[in-house]
Amino acid sequence: MTKLEIAQHIDHTVLKPFTSVEMVETISREAIQYKMKGVCVPPSFVPLVKVLLDNHPINIVTVVGFPFGYNSSTTKIFECEDSIFKGAIQIDVVNNLSWTIEGKYDLIKEELLNCTKVIHSNNAKIKWIIESGELTLQQIENLINIANEVGIDYLKTSTGFSSIGAELEKVSFMRAKLNTNIGIKASGGIKTKQQFMSFLEAGADIIGTSSSVAIINE
């Protein structure tokens, strides 16, 4: 793959607890330089990224319910609306991991459906973060069934805050079970070009990473 082809699969990311204006300015500048697919930042930095990216064809991506997903559904819906109003065009929504562990799939489906309706009605796209490293294959399949029924845009592996990030086996499993029109974003611990290529081969469409420049230039 060329450097441009690699860049077009990357959401250049900074989601650290101590994210600064300087960090956001740096990744925005790098995204423009290398023509990356997207820039993923905390919600409070979305207005800044909108200014920094100006009219460049780079997706402004942010997160909702981050990083643990147990915000109330009402709060998540407001976060979605607010982030889109401020300039985000892709919203990475964290699933409620507590509900997943407890098997409360009806509540999960209702929340995802409501978030998806709000996001799609505003011509934006939803990526659903399920923290796959903490789940069994059966739990992941249960969530995939919900994702297929609701009609999300992407299933995303991880927040990067768990001890286990993206895993090749689980990405391959997702690709086999997901509807073909739903993409996969792999994130969490992807730092080398070899890892990057392996996750694309496993079925990922987008790679979320803070190591974007190193991967592109490796």
CATH architecture: Alpha-Beta Barrel
Bin the helical content: 40-55%
Strand content: 15-25%
Total count of domains = 1
Q: Give the full name of the CATH homologous superfamily.
A: Aldolase class I
Q: Number of helical segments?
A: 10
Number of strands: 8
Query: What about the largest sheet?
Result: 8 strands, parallel, barrel
Task: Describe, in plain words, how this protein is organized in 3D.
By secondary structure, this protein is α/β, with parallel strands linked by helices. The chain has one domain: TIM Barrel. The chain contains 10 helices and 8 strands. It has an 8-stranded parallel barrel with strand order 1-2-3-4-5-6-7-8, surrounded by 6 helices. The protein is globular and about 45 Å long. The termini are close together. The mean pLDDT is 98.
